[in-house]
Design goal:
By secondary structure, the chain is α/β, with parallel strands linked by helices. It is built from 14 helices and 10 strands. 43% of the residues lie in helices and 14% in strands. It binds flavin mononucleotide.
């Protein structure tokens, strides 16, 4: 079948997405405030940071806070990680109770601590266990269960088609395939051939992910036969990138986000963050992101330094207003 290179709706099981552009999960970045910006910025689906199913099992307050969704971000998937099927099933129920529209299994995280526990990308080497996790979750919740994994662990490996079949048979409703091996972390080329083989191996939608910043790169992913595209880092300092990509794929036209527009989005992010964590804590959590947002702006280094001292939203507005006009 000829690949569909356009912007189009996608069904993840019973969940209908308005379009085939998804925000990829990013620990430390895709919190609820950021996800609202991405949903408003045109993403058809947003995904939380990965949440430890083990921590949820032990009642960790911070992990339960990570399950909280805001009204403006739906449809939203909550991503979970653990190598224990029973624990993942319980966590999926908690995610469903929190209002998740889908629950996603992290089978691609390359962080050593996660790998040592048998979770994340380690699950790519234990397909029976991955299948056990998926089917335990599918039996425990009504919302669709999805999986995110990589093309392989080492360069040149293509585990995608086999794993995709395993996931589909276990009841997964969609897959996100990061087109880089785990050994490559988040850099280097994306293996489009491996992506094509994976998309061809299953009937469920495959979202291809890796290195997409514009419509042309999104089209290259769709040309592999993937039903959709996952966007990670390009959204970090421009959550409106989804609308820009959508326009390039034949959706309604939008202008590329100006710097002033982006800084207004950053202010909105700070306001949403304040609503979740309180003003001072919300600003403190934004410190590690401010460099991305201010990159390339005049006096960015000094503004960044000043941002580190801020305690109130009023101070943030006063500091950033120079960039919003
Ligand atoms: C800071 C950071 C955190 C990430 N955290 C997660 C995560 O929690 N779960 C996950 O499945 N992938 C995670 N990823 C991988 C992204 O979802 C995505 O696969 C990767 O960034 C490639 O897409 P991109 O090239 O569009 O950024 C993370 C990536 C980055 C850069």
């Amino acid at each position: 079948m000829k690949p569909d290179l356009s912007l189009h709706p996608v069904a993840i099981g019973p969940l209908a997405l308005k379009n085939n552009l998804a925000l990829a999960p990013m620990a430390g970045i895709t919190n609820a405030a950021f996800r609202v910006l991405c949903a408003e910025g045109g993403a058809g689906l947003v995904v939380t940071e990965m949440v430890s199913a083990e921590s949820l099992k032990y009642g960790n307050k911070r992990s339960f806070e990570m399950l909280k969704l805001l009204p403006g971000e739906h449809p939203a998937a909550i991503q979970l990680f653990s190598a224990d099927p029973a624990c993942m099933a319980l966590a999926a129920q908690a995610a469903e109770r929190a209002g998740a529209d889908a629950v996603d299994v992290n089978a691609g995280c390359p962080v050593r601590k996660v790998l040592r526990s048998g979770a994340g990308a380690a699950l790519m080497k234990t397909p029976l266990l991955l299948a056990g996790i998926i089917s335990a979750m599918v039996k425990s919740v009504k919302v669709p269960v999805t999986v995110k994994f990589r093309v392989g662990l080492e360069a040149g490996e293509n585990l995608g088609p086999g794993l995709a079949r395993v996931c589909e048979e276990a009841g997964a409703s969609a897959i996100t395939l990061h087109g880089r091996p785990a050994a490559q972390q988040h850099s280097g080329p994306v293996d489009l051939e491996a992506m094509a083989a994976t998309a061809a191996a299953v009937k469920i939608p495959v979202f291809g992910n890796g290195g997409v910043e514009n419509a042309e790169q999104a089209r290259a992913i769709l040309a592999t036969g993937c039903a959709g595209v996952g966007v990670g880092r390009a959204a970090v300092f421009n959550p409106a990138v989804f609308s820009e990509i959508a326009a390039g794929l034949g959706g309604a036209g939008v202008e590329a986000a100006s710097q002033a527009f982006r800084i207004r989005l950053f202010l909105r992010f700070l306001e949403l963050n304040a609503g979740i964590y309180g003003e001072e804590h919300g600003l403190a959590r934004a410190r590690k992101l401010v460099g991305y947002w201010l990159k390339g702006l005049p006096n960015a280094a000094s503004a960044r330094g000043a941002f580190m001292q801020l305690k109130t939203l009023k101070e943030a507005r006063e500091l950033l207003i120079q960039y919003t006009r």
